[in-house]
């Protein structure tokens, strides 16, 4: 796995719904899901990143929002997730069976603006380094 196990902790799992045409997310570590101002990565079982993002509010809230956006798009109702992306999520789950979300909350650093966490810098670096399939900004 490309991520440091000491920093990125498993938080949730994404699987196909019973109908095999929708997705569902299950929290696997409620404590990790409580983290705010964090970086999360959806990975395959072999550790390949497919989506990298950040969250301001709780990581769990962000991770649990994925089914709503993806399933809405798959049902043809539009929304924040484009249809092509929703179909890629479905394809990844069909191929891999499950994706795992891992979460890291960086330590705050003292800057001229006060204490900040470098989530956006870490996200940008990881996207640049790994070019995950489901990050639209990966190019």
Written account of the structure:
The protein is α+β, with helices and mostly antiparallel strands. It contains five helices and seven strands; from the N terminus they run E-E-H-E-E-H-H-H-E-E-E-H. The strands form two sheets. It has a five-stranded antiparallel β-sheet, sandwiched between helices. It has a two-stranded antiparallel ribbon with strand order 6-7.
What's the N-to-C terminus distance? 22 Å
- Count the beta strands: 7
Categorize the overall geometry. globular
Class inferred from helices and paired strands: alpha+beta
Mean pLDDT: 92
Q: The biggest beta sheet, please?
A: 5 strands, antiparallel
Radius of gyration over C-alpha positions, nearest whole angstrom: 15 Å
Helix content: 25-40%
Parts with pLDDT < 50 across at least 5 consecutive residues: none
In sequence order, what are the helices and strands, one letter per element? Answer: EEHEEHHHEEEH
Number of helices: 5
What's the arrangement of strands in the largest beta sheet? 2-1-5-3-4
The percent range for strand residues is 25-35%
């Amino acid at each position: 796995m490309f991520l440091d196990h000491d920093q990125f902790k498993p938080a949730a799992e994404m699987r196909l719904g019973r109908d095999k045409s929708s997705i569902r997310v299950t929290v696997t570590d409620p404590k990790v899901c409580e983290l705010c101002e964090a970086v999360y990565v959806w990975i395959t079982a072999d550790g390949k990143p497919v989506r990298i993002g950040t969250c301001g509010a709780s990581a769990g809230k962000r991770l649990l929002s994925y089914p709503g956006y993806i399933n809405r798009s798959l049902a043809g109702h539009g929304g924040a997730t484009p249809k092509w992306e929703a179909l890629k999520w479905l394809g990844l789950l069909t191929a891999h069976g499950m994706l795992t979300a891992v979460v890291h909350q960086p330590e705050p650093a003292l800057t001229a603006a006060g204490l900040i966490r470098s989530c956006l810098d870490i996200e940008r670096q990881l996207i640049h380094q790994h070019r995950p399939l489901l990050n639209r900004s990966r190019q």
